[in-house]
Amino acid sequence: MPVRILCYNQEGCMGCMEQEPINRQVEDELGVVIEELDALEHPDDIAAYDLKVTPTILVIVDGGVRERFEGVVHRETLAEAIKKNL
Fold this sequence. Notes:
Elements: E1 3-9, H1 14-30, E2 34-38, H2 43-48, E3 56-61, E4 64-70, H3 75-83
Parallel strand pairs: 1-2
Antiparallel strand pairs: 1-3, 3-4
Helix pairs in contact: 1-3
């Protein structure tokens, strides 16, 4: 059951800048990798995942979105969502 964690952001986004250190804390805590992707450089993903805001974090399991967070998400909430899908 492969798990991918994607964080879509964009340059100049204040929420994205706030989310980045939270993502690093969760990576360190859980030993996972959160892939940082510039949403504007991935137009196919915008359509495929119906991205409307940045940051948007997706927890993808076996190719399907299991968890979705739009806007800044707290460390505890993000860590719990990832743990239950590992």
